[in-house]
Amino acid sequence: MGISEVTVGDMIPSKPEKRCCAMCGCISFLIIFILFLTSFQQVNRLNAGLLRNGFTGEVNLERSYLPGRYFVGFWNEFMHFPTTLNTIEFADEAVEEGVQQLGKLRSRDKDGKQIWLDVSVQYRIYPNELPQIYREMTKLYEDVYISELRGALQRITNEFTVDEAWKDYSAVNQKMLDECKTVLLPRHAECWGLQLWGVRLQTEYENQLVRTQVRKQAEETALATQTQTEYRQKTEVILAEYVANVTVINQKGQADKQRIERDALSAAQSALVGAQGDVLKIVFDTVKLNATDTTTEKLMSGSELVKYQNILMLKEKKSSNFHIKPAL
């Protein structure tokens, strides 16, 4: 008979005693297999874990476990601790899911004024220091952080006046952040961030502060207006100087233009007179009465020269009827 022909009935012993032993063996194997599977436990993502005995409740503080699957035995289980950023918020407003509802920080400033602060803190535990955290604070570590942060932040507010919170917000917020880091570091956690986002005084102080700020703003506005007026006046003076300079330059240019035109006209007239004199001299030297047997060469007299010039001028006029007859 081949293996393919074997049935379940063939594998079960025919005798009751052997059949009972086979059944017990199967059950034992099944139980062992289930226990083997349940011996693998997982630390979830974004968490760290501590191993705890499921029967005795004893926690193993020898090491912490990062995310992953581990063979730890079916009698053990993991306690999970979030390694992401967690928020502590000191405020009266509604908070997001997973954040404890805490009240405002109540304290006094450097001058003794009663103040209420809205502060948000983000922290993150160090996964490798999880055994120390559980040894010192068990799973109530956040309550310890809240208590110590409340006291430390209330003390740090005694070092500055309330008006510094908005006059020099960065410095005040940095002081509180440094104090937060100082508090959480020995408690095996990192103070990742802190935001001071609300400051409230008693009503009478707030009203007085508002009046003071309004008065200061009015003074600053008046000073700015005065400065603007001074600069406007200086600008107008400079503009007037430029306008005056432009007027002077224009007048000087106009005078220079007229002078140049007069000089050019005078030079032209002088050149014209000179040219006319040269022409007369040429005419005087050229036009002569030729010598004959009975007379000698004779130059024109002054009156004859003028008359000759007039005759030439009449010849230039197209409307004149004067014509010079050619010599025979």
UniProtKB/TrEMBL annotation:
InterPro entries with a match to the protein in the record: Band_7 (IPR001107), Band_7/SPFH_dom_sf (IPR036013)
Entry keywords, A to Z: Membrane, Transmembrane, Transmembrane helix
Pfam families: Band_7
Domain of life, per lineage: Eukaryota
All residue ranges annotated as the Band domain in the record: 62-228
Gene3D superfamilies: Band 7 domain (3.30.479.30)
Annotated TM spans: 20-40
Protein name: Band 7 domain-containing protein
Organism: Effrenium voratum
Lineage: Eukaryota, Sar, Alveolata, Dinophyceae, Suessiales
